Amino acid sequence: MDDLYEAVENANEKKKPLVLEFIGSTSYRSTCEFMKPIVESVANTYKNKADFCTVDFDNNEFKFLAKAFGVQALPTFLMIMGYSAVEKIVAPDKQELIKSIDNLAPTK
Questions:
Q1: What per-residue confidence (pLDDT) applies to 93?
Q2: Least packed by Cβ within 10 Å: which of 39, 40, 53, 94?
Q3: Domain coordinates of the chain in residue numbers?
Q4: Stated pTM of the model
């Protein structure tokens, strides 16, 4: 949980969106594994525009968080700006994820 708080704080300080990815280590595992290389590729390419953090839906420590954000399918991505969730994307393709980051990331 401390890592999640730190990720939110760091992204907020840098004025960058935080891509919060809800995955399942047991439930929906195959879908989440399919998305893993896609998310890693996007995270590597867009590391200067956005921060990324993964939350295991199956970890009891995060069940309340998933419920609070209405996570019902995996993977689900929450786009966080400041301290607010501004967009929720369920099982996106690579282009949808990139488009969301581009729409939220500050331009320089």
A1: 85
A2: 40
A3: 2-102
A4: 0.90
Token code pair at residue 43: 């995270």
* List of residues 6+ apart from 27 with CB closer than 8 A: 57, 58, 74
Q: Could you give the CA distance from residue 23 to residue 59 in angstroms, rounded to a whole number?
A: 10
Residue 92 has pLDDT above 90, yes or no: no
Contact of 84 with 78, CB cutoff 8 Å: no
Mean pLDDT of the chain: 91
CB 52 within 8 A of CB 39: yes
Decide if 50 contacts 101 (C-beta within 8 A). Answer: yes
Give the count of beta carbons closer than 10 Å to the beta carbon of residue 18. 24
What secondary structure letter does DSSP report for 87? Answer: E
CA–CA distances in Å: residue 25 to residues 47, 59, 108: 24, 8, 37
Q: Which numeric CATH code is attached to 2-102?
A: 3.40.30.10
pLDDT (tens digit, 9 = 90+) per residue, 9-51?
999 999 999 999 999 988 888 888 888 999 999 999 999 999 9
